[in-house]
Design goal:
Layout: H1 4-19, H2 27-35, E1 56-59, E2 62-64, H3 67-76, E3 84-88, H4 94-102, E4 105-110, H5 113-125, E5 131-135, E6 150-153, H6 162-165, E7 171-180, E8 185-193, E9 196-205
Length: 227
């Protein structure tokens, strides 16, 4: 098994070669990804592959995202230390830990209880306590805790969920999420100003599908369209 020094060396190389050279330039995001050990969020047999330029399995049919995608989504949200963030899909907890490092407080929802428990334990082991992880249907958000300065959705949705849009702060709240079919999506940035919402497609991607009321296992659509 690699040593902690080797992991640190691989982590720095990951940031330099996979992120900086591909245009990620937010210093706070880069620093967070140098600090937080991605290998700590992977099953034992996959730890040596933690800093490779690809996603990796974490069990339950789920994956941890490619490092570049984690950095890209995080950078586009322009997180500030006072922000409250909602994350849909805790998964391994790696992206959650990045959000904890960069913001004031994070609420995260994970459908699979085993993954939620593991994510919470790993994040706690790193010393972060500005986090609450819920087990449930992430497609409905957390209306009791809204509104949020930022929302990050780490699973694909077939359409923009208006219920999540309504939980964004009215004064410049932003959400990033992959929208499309189960094979290919576009990362989309949504911004709210008052009752006005704008969206911008950023890049093509492929995420596991979001399962829930407004995900891929339901024919239910929002009652009214925001756009």
């Amino acid at each position: 098994m690699p040593s902690s020094r080797e992991y640190a060396r691989w982590r720095n190389r990951m940031v330099d070669d996979q992120l900086v050279k591909r245009g990620i330039n937010d210093r706070r995001v880069l620093d967070a990804m140098r600090v937080i050990p991605r290998h700590a969020f992977l099953p034992e047999e996959f730890k040596p592959q933690a800093y490779e330029d690809r996603p990796a399995p974490i069990g339950e049919g789920q994956t941890i995202s490619q490092p570049y995608i984690v950095a890209f989504m995080t950078e586009r949200l322009r997180l500030k230390p006072h922000h409250t963030v909602l994350e849909i899909g805790a998964g391994s907890g790696y992206q959650t830990a990045i959000l904890c490092h960069l913001s004031h407080y994070v609420y995260s929802i994970e459908r699979v209880s085993r993954l939620a428990d593991q994510a919470g334990e790993r994040i706690g082991d790193l010393g972060y306590n500005n986090i609450e992880i819920y087990v449930g249907d992430g497609s409905q958000g957390l209306p009791d805790q809204a509104t949020f300065d930022r929302i990050m959705v780490t699973a694909a949705v077939p359409r923009l969920p208006n219920v999540l849009c309504s939980q964004l702060d009215k004064h410049g709240g932003q959400m990033i999420l992959p929208i499309g079919d189960e094979e290919l999506q576009e990362l989309t940035l949504v911004t709210r100003r008052g009752v006005r919402f704008t969206s911008r497609a950023l890049l093509r991607c492929r995420f596991v599908p979001l399962i829930g009321r407004y995900g891929f296992d339901s024919d239910i659509s929002d009652e009214q369209q925001i756009f």
